[in-house]
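Q: Could you fold this chain for me?
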Amino acid sequence: MVPRSANLAVQIVQFVEEYQPGIVACELIDSDGRRHRFIDKVPVFSLDLLDGDSQYPQPGHARCTIVREWRDADGRELVNISTSEPDHLESTEGLTDFVVLRDQVSVAPQ
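A: Sure. Below is the predicted structure, expressed as structure tokens.
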């Protein structure tokens, strides 16, 4: 299967640094309930103009690719995604591959 472009739902949880554009932290919770944090410029996660005075958390998204989809033994629809393309995003732990619930991912228009 050829990886497909998608958007991963994330929560923007904190304004980290004044910069042009500003830097924010966002989180995703994977299918095992583990929290992963990403830190990058606001436009990577949102089209909104966020700054230190904005209310958090805010909904956001991270562009990713869908590597694989399946249903587990409990009937959950799972998706293996990679955040390494197209924006070279990695978590604060250096991870780029995650398994998330299908409803956390929307397929990007082609």
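A (continued): The radius of gyration is 14 Å.
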